[in-house]
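Hey, can you fold this one?
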Amino acid sequence: MTDGHISHISGVVFLDKPQGWTSRHAVNEVSRIFGRIKAGHAGTLDPLATGMLPILLGEATRFAGFGLDADKFYEVCIDLSRQTDTLDTEGKETGKYQVKIDDAQLQQAISGMQGEQEQLPPAYSAIRIHGQRAHDLARRGKPFELPPRQINIGEIRLLGWDNPLLKLFVHCSKGTYIRALARDIGTRLGLGGCVTALRRLSCGGWLPETMVDIDAVRRKGRDTVVPLAEWLAHLPRVELARDLAQRFMHGQRLPLDDQVADEAVAVFFEGELLGTGTIKPGFSGLVLHPGRVLPSAQELLA
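Sure. Predicted structure:
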């Protein structure tokens, strides 16, 4: 691409990540398509996994947290007859199991995973331990401990059971490792729990139909980019007059009416996104505190 305005792209590509690609490789590939624009993702997918990987472009990279913090929806296939060191088919086998369970045992193990809980992340993960990735330490055989994380499994539902393969639908909170969930289900049954296939269906409620494959991104370019304002559409909207918009762009706090305290908002001027802020109580009313302000919005107020 040689579009002279390529640097002004600011939005999200909901890539249907191919199997075998790391999330970083996917980001780099999309960045290259758009002229090596600044890019990042909102929630890692393992190389084994496919599905929704939100890739943020340009100024949208400032707002990756909205995807990182969002609930996720998955379909996962688990082999209860074996386990590996990585908890998926990419690793070395560490155990074989004879699967002799009935439907009641299976359902009990699955339903027991629903709700808030502590989860021990997999040793092969991107979590940093004293500045080093856990998976790097694990590959080198270095001993380390990972602290458990507080997660929530909002829904877990059986989609199929063909012994020893188990297929599930999972709705989970941020920070949840599906490989760890598979391990824990297997542990409840005294069996393995090796992920053989994983697909992310949704991130933050975005529909599966939003996804595009990498070939579509190459062919259609900008048409595959969801504008940043849509990525922030879940935030209440605040429209500012010119004088207040100029003050917002300079980082000044603004008095506001008819808003809710302690609420994150998206801030606009004449329908154009300026950035985000937070409404907080002040001495004589509510006040808008600027958060992330878009440098490109300066042009709107020149």
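Confidence is low (pLDDT under 50) at residues 1-6. Let me know if you want another pass with a different chain boundary.
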